[in-house]
TrEMBL record:
Keywords: DNA-binding, Transcription, Transcription regulation. InterPro entries: HTH_HxlR, WH-like_DNA-bd_sf, WH_DNA-bd_sf. Residues 14-110 form the HTH hxlR-type domain. The keyword ATP-binding does not apply. This is Winged helix-turn-helix transcriptional regulator. It comes from Herbiconiux daphne. SUPFAM superfamilies: Winged helix' DNA-binding domain.
């Protein structure tokens, strides 16, 4: 089984690298969390994330739309909003599991028993 996990398909970027590319940038988790809270989420809601500049919000949201994690939708008021796609919802589940793993095993190397 471990060998199967390490097999990487041929190509420019393996699926793991492509996925991590969507979430590795600072603030990506905040964008996902904000999108999860709204249905749909307006661009202004993303701009209210204090840790992110407007340029960072624009880059992260655009990247997640291109990556199929967020979809642009029209809100009932006629504004552009964003909603997590099915892929985005599944990614949130994976990231929650990753967070659980980090809580249990994410100590720094110097903190871990040998």
């Amino acid at each position: 089984m471990a060998d199967e996990l390490l097999e990487v398909p041929a190509g420019d970027l393996c699926p793991y690298q492509r996925t991590m590319g969507l979430v590795r940038e600072r603030g990506s988790f905040l964008i996902l969390r904000t999108a999860l809270a709204g249905d749909p989420t307006t661009y202004d809601a993303f701009l209210r994330i204090p840790e992110l500049t407007p340029a960072a919000v624009d880059e992260r949201v655009s990247s997640m739309v291109r990556g199929g994690v967020l979809a642009e939708v029209i809100t009932p008021g006629g504004a552009t909003g964003y909603r997590l796609t099915e892929a985005g919802m599944q990614l949130v589940i994976i990231l929650r599991a990753l967070g659980d793993w980090a809580e249990e095993f994410g100590a720094t190397a110097s903190d871990r028993p040998v």
